[in-house]
Amino acid sequence: MDGFKPHSSHWGAFYGRHQGEALEIRPHPADPHPSPILGNLPAIAHSPARIRRPAVRRGWLEARPDNAGKRGSDGYVEVTWPEALDLVANELRRVHGEAGPQAIFGGSYGWSSAGRFHHAQSQIHRFLNVLGGYVRSVNTYSSGAAMVIIPHVLGPYDTLDRKSVTWDAIERSSEMIVAFGGMAVKNTDVHGGGITRHVVRPALSGARARGARFVLVSPLKDDIATDLDADWLPVTPGTDVALMLAIAFVLVSEGRHNREFLDRYTTGYPRFEAYLLGREDGVEKSPQWAAGICGIAADTIVDLARSMANARTLITVSHSLQRADYGEQPVWTGIVLAAMLGQIGLDGGGFSYSLGALGNIGKSQLAVPLPTLKQFHNPVPDFIPVARIADMLLNPGEPFHYNGQALRYPDIRLVYWAGGNPFHHHQDLNRLRQAFKTPETIIVHETAWTSSARHADIVLPATTTLERDDIGAADRDPMMIAMKRLIEPVGEARDDYEIFADIAERLGKRGAFTENRSSHEWLAFLFETTRAALAAGGHPAPDFETFWEMGELQLPVKPDDGGPARAFRADPDANPLPTPSGKIEIFSETIESFGYDDCRGHPRWFEPNPTTRAAESRYPLYLVCNQPRSRLHSQLDYGDFSRSTKIDGREPVRINPADAAERGISDRDIVRLFNARGSCLAAAVISTDVKPGVMQLATGAWFEPDDADAEIAMCLHGNPNILTRDTGTSQLAQASTGQLTKVDVERFVGELPPVRILDGMTFIDK
């Protein structure tokens, strides 16, 4: 292809060619709707934000570990690779000797590469396990509450609920799709491990052309594709559970619920119904009750409930709803509502969690396994829910509850991070800044000078996906890609594998870590897993070198047979769910036994926490902090497409015209969003697509404090996590509540400070 080589990314497969300083990108020809995020890739080759040499924080060099308070404001000294690797190895040796592996936290968030081998999360966990283990994190920021509640109610996460409803089934059979939290098409541009064909748009359009009705329950009108003519119910943020309960109330009071399904396939329904009808607490969860909470008229709720009962209805619940206080409840209530309709397991009906959140959810399952790098066993038992990192660093030894366990936060002396940017995905960044000043040493592998790199002691420059060979493959995507290196490593950047191998050598563990294989030999070794399965199934099974020359390989998929939900519906005795009852747990004796006051035995509406409500009562606006359309999380914020969506170099914040007029704000004004936790600058975009009383500011702008030494800083760039609360969803999941917060906004007055975070780093002499 005229010098173009195959490659892949989280937002799509593509072909690339590097000539001189220019990197040219062509989307994969089979992709009907390539993601515009590919437009960020060319900046990798030349951006000043890239880290080109190892660097060490000056204060740490001079007075470790007593200079931790200067993290985030200190200067950096560039060093040679041998110097940097010696420093890392010596620190690991010291902390192991003084406190053991339980004093090391291995941080990673796994989105750093679409490749199956050069996957930072796998690499760092393998490396630390070879050394004796580490304190780990569980679950994700995106889906932390759902990952805990779903196993109690349906069985293992990502099984029944996300492997039973396909886009093909929706296109051919769904009559009504009720999307709680929406299914924003921009989110389907990405998927961990890659995506070859973006099929969501045509599938939804096909369903609409057939006559399917879409209902969007969200404060944002564009949380669903505009061409679907969806009925928009602009719900008050955080109140979807009240609306769901009122729909359920109508089903029961009018006898529209499926009693046969509830009796055969669920357990605990009578106890939930007693709560629903007010026999438990004296409060009927009626449409009139819900209307005063969620802002949707009672008559509208009644009509919606009747329509759902009279159609082949699919209920979806987005990631966003469970990234808030009591985030377990909307997922659980959505499942119960779908069970009451009795359509779980029907083609195009029932329930699907986070359909539309990622590009490959809703596709058919692969029929063969994918290459996976073994990470070995971690002998350290200590762990934290992923969103509790600041709690851990600030409160070593303090007790906390998680999923029925009484645990204590470990005492962490060294943080080792590779893959991910906690100053993007964590909440209350001023609190995180203080937490990052507590460990003795922080080591990061990074590709660019993000705020995470600027809060580390030792910074090792890692290659990006474009600078290495790998195998691109993802669950539910039927194409394996030979990801061929497109550019030479920028500066002195090295692969994570090479970095860890050299550190392991200094610690006498190189052979254990590498198994004496080069990167290319690892690719061939890992590929064999898939090749052997292809051969056993009678499918074309080329050897690795043939695949590498071909550039891509079509993988077989399983038939679209309704998945685990259809099998359960057909014969619940032969195909029971992996729950204590073998059924859908509307009431969970297990959860009830935990004794939590913020997550009981059945789903319910929880009033806002009184302490939180009092603290935030003076901030009148909800801020929705959702995913950006111009990048994946904070990745490649310095790319051309991401920069093109900014206004005067800052992130856009959408404001309803009424709220803007009340505050004298005009389109493109630079505004200051603020609450008790901090503030940030952003550029106003006046829009009727946001509900009055609501603003929307996407996550992912690299955090840049106005005063790196201040306890409460303002972000100049527009990172909303300077404003969000760092509290868990409940004692059950302890998941992130970063989707929503309360703020106020005003026009910024005075000299506008520049945004420099994307400009790279200026170094000091040794």
Topology:
Blueprint: E1 5-7, E2 14-19, E3 22-27, E4 55-57, H1 58-63, E5 76-78, H2 81-99, E6 104-107, H3 120-131, E7 136-138, H4 144-153, H5 167-173, E8 176-180, H6 200-210, E9 213-217, E10 231-233, H7 240-253, H8 259-265, E11 266-267, H9 269-276, H10 287-294, H11 298-309, E12 313-317, H12 328-341, E13 350-353, E14 383-385, H13 389-394, E15 399-402, E16 405-408, E17 414-418, H14 422-425, H15 429-435, E18 441-446, H16 451-454, E19 458-461, E20 470-472, E21 479-483, H17 496-506, H18 510-514, H19 519-536, H20 544-550, E22 552-554, H21 563-570, E23 584-585, H22 589-594, H23 610-616, E24 621-624, H24 640-644, E25 652-655, H25 657-662, E26 670-675, E27 678-686, E28 694-697, E29 714-715, E30 740-747
Parallel strand pairs: 6-17, 7-14, 8-9, 8-12, 9-10, 11-23, 12-13, 17-18, 18-19, 24-28, 25-27, 27-29
Antiparallel strand pairs: 1-2, 2-3, 4-5, 4-19, 15-16, 20-21, 21-22, 24-30, 25-28, 26-27, 26-30
Helix pairs in contact: 2-17, 3-17, 4-12, 5-6, 7-10, 7-11, 7-12, 10-11
Please explain how this structure is put together.
- This protein is of the alpha/beta class.
- The chain has four domains: 5-45, no CATH class; 55-139 and 373-474 and 487-512, Rossmann fold (3-Layer(aba) Sandwich); 145-360 and 575-594, Dimethylsulfoxide Reductase, domain 2, CATH 3.40.228.10; 610-747, Barwin-like endoglucanases.
- 29% of the residues lie in helices and 17% in strands.
- The protein contains 25 helices and 30 strands.
- Strand 18 (441-446), helix 16 and strand 19 form a beta-alpha-beta unit.
- The mean pLDDT is 96.
